[in-house]
Write a structure and sequence with these properties.
Rieske Iron-sulfur Protein, Naphthalene 1,2-dioxygenase Alpha Subunit, Chain A, domain 1, 4-stranded antiparallel beta sheet, 13 helices
């Protein structure tokens, strides 16, 4: 499947009728809450309900958000239900094999139209009053249609379509802003770091084993920011897991604990960190033995194989994260300022033999599945941060993101700006971009164009 934008339906005009900013919620100026240059963050950004509501309007309503993987759609009618922020959406393949996404809400009374997690269908029918919509989002049947006024036009009541849907090497993203810059432009240099996971195999990637879902107490930014920037916690938070996983049972060797590495930071809020020690390889032995590293170096380049293809971490702003060595890709669905719903997939190369795919699956579950020995440590950290952040004095003390200030540079090896592996550089960049978006009116807040013949 190529990277394409879906055709917005006429129903998208309904989105433009949202209330203008002068009548809507008051926006919060977050300038004083994020000091990206000084490396200080006000922790109220994790707890304030007003800030959370503003994120839904100014972050999630205008950003490219991960929807699904292309391998989940094999034939027309295949669908998957997910969220963009807290907006429920249906992602489906239409009769032309184009991937499209719609607000998962019936146009009649607003009930959730599709309540299945995934499946195949020819029509989406609301179980409340029976309104039915085809794979192109058009309203097809209305029970007792003759009771409606003569000017009732089904063409005006199709599903609200996500106006932009695009793919990057198997990853499907959606954006409510029809005028947003293209996905690849938004990714920028992040594409290089993604390719180290997505482009190892000429046949591409696929997801296996379904979607794992679990809830955590904590703010979505805690998880997204950690995956963008934080190698610093590994040796402390995961000490017991590293001991269990080491061949000797005594933990990794000192040179691996103090591994060299780099951290990528993007002006668009993306981030990736990765060690460059030769032993930082695929943890599942069968996966490690499967790869021809000489062929990988020829395909991806020496720097990619020695760096971002290793045991690293990364986030595509705002809420898509991945671990290249484990094949874990996940979305952090916000469920209020104090709760995250984690959805995770296991990503493998298509040409891997089945036994190698299974080895990757089992290793993923053991480490970063819902009860994985590393995953449990991370969830505990985020929940503890959130649990104490509601206190008056606690919430008035800034958080320190000063590690590595001034170390950002173009290193001549990896694209874009990088810092040291042990650094908060990508975290500062994440929050700088977050603050910029939070303080900038989004597409739905722009003044309506003046009628023809009138001056603006």
């Amino acid at each position: 499947m190529s990277t394409t934008d879906s055709c917005p339906s006429e129903a998208n005009a309904a989105i433009g009728k949202m209330r203008g900013s002068e009548h809507g919620p008051k926006n919060i100026d977050v300038s004083a809450l994020v000091d990206a240059e000084g490396g200080l963050i006000d922790r109220s950004i994790y707890t304030d309900p007003g800030i959370y509501d503003q994120e839904m309007r100014r972050i999630f309503a205008r950003s490219w958000l991960f929807l699904a993987h292309a391998s989940q759609f094999k034939k027309p009618g295949d669908f998957f239900t997910t969220f963009m922020g807290q907006d429920p959406v249906i992602v489906t393949m239409d009769k032309t094999k184009t991937i499209r996404a719609y607000l998962n809400s019936c146009r009649h009374r607003g009930m959730r139209l599709c309540r299945a997690d995934a499946g195949a269908t020819k029509m989406f029918t609301c179980t409340y009053h029976g309104w039915s919509f085809d794979l192109a989002g058009a309203l097809q049947t209305v029970p007792n249609e003759k009771a409606y006024p003569e000017d009732f036009d089904k063409k005006q009541w199709g599903l609200i379509e996500v106006p932009r849907v695009a793919e990057y090497k198997g990853l499907l993203f959606g954006n409510w802003d029809k005028d947003a810059e293209d996905l690849e432009e938004t990714l920028g240099d992040m594409r290089y770091y993604l390719d180290a996971m997505l482009d190892r195999d000429p046949e591409g990637t696929e997801v296996i084993g379904g979607v794992m879902k679990w809830e955590l107490e904590g703010n979505w930014k805690l998880a997204a920011e950690q995956f963008a920037t934080d190698w610093y916690h590994v040796n402390m938070s995961h000490a017991s897991a590293l001991m269990v996983m080491s061949p000797t049972g005594k933990g990794p060797k000192a040179e691996i604990v103090a591994t060299p590495g780099r951290q990528f930071l993007s002006p668009n809020g993306h981030g990736a960190g990765f060690p460059t020690h030769p032993k930082s390889r695929f943890d599942a032995q069968a996966v490690h033995e499967h790869y021809d590293y000489d062929a990988l170096r020829e395909r991806l380049g020496d720097a990619a194989v020695e760096g971002p293809m290793t045991t690293g971490h990364a986030t595509v702003f705002p809420s898509f994260s991945y671990l290249p060595v484990n094949g874990s890709i996940r979305i952090w669905h916000p469920k209020g300022p104090n709760k995250i719903e984690v959805w995770a997939w296991i990503l493998v190369d298509k040409s891997m033999p089945e036994d190698v795919k299974d080895a990757q699956r089992l290793y993923n579950l053991r480490t970063f599945g819902p009860s994985g020995i590393f995953e449990a440590d991370d969830g505990e950290n985020w929940s503890e941060i959130q649990a104490v952040s509601g206190g008056f004095v606690t919430n008035s003390v800034p958080l320190n993101f000063q590690m590595g200030i001034g170390s950002e540079r173009e290193d001549g090896v990896y694209p874009g700006q990088t810092s040291e592996l042990y650094s908060d550089a990508a975290g500062r960049s994440f929050y700088r971009h977050w603050a910029e978006l939070m303080n900038t009116p989004a597409w739905h807040e722009r003044p309506a164009p003046a009628p023809a013949g009138e001056s603006a």
